[in-house]
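ok trying again, last paste got cut off:
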Amino acid sequence: MMNEQFARSKLTEVCKLLYDRNLTVSAGGNMSLRLNEKEFIITPSGRNKGLLRPEDMVLMNLKGKKLSDGKPSMEKGFHTALFNANPETASVIHCHPLYCTALAVKGEKIKSTLTPEGVILLGEVPTIGYFTPGSKKLVDAVAEHSSCKAMLMERHGAITQGRTLEEAFNRMEELEFQAKLQMLAGDAAELPASEIKKLSKM
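nice, full thing came through this time. structure:
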């Protein structure tokens, strides 16, 4: 169980860090942090993530009901779906990082197997087909891949989840690094299958 005020402060810090690291821009993206087995906080709709304050975060329950003032992100549905599917997930982050989104626009699958860190932090990264943001179809598509640490959404951006807020952030940062590396490295070979298998167990 996490103290709500502490959680609001930590989520605000990470939102600013995501913005400062160019992992999200303007009002794009949404981030959440679980408080307990029934409640979580999520970023408000239509707000610049670099300018948020702790009191701007919106409290919700895992049934999708709003419990505080403010308008929650339109993507609250897939946050709720991932929390419900994975009791160990403490944080969900959705951003529009440039290189991840470039791959998602091109319809190119991201390779998380170019470096050991990609394999360990990300594992297999699926690309979800395009669905209208905020739609039930998008929620259902994300839920189908709830066991994945990270995923791309066609023409939309990326999602990561973690057992801590820091882990979810690290995965988003690593995902964007791998996307940029992939675009710079061209047709560079991936790690051997035997090494990928070994790293996956770490």
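cool. The beta strands are 30-34, 39-42, 58-61, 91-95, 127-128, 150-153, 157-162. The mean pLDDT is 96.
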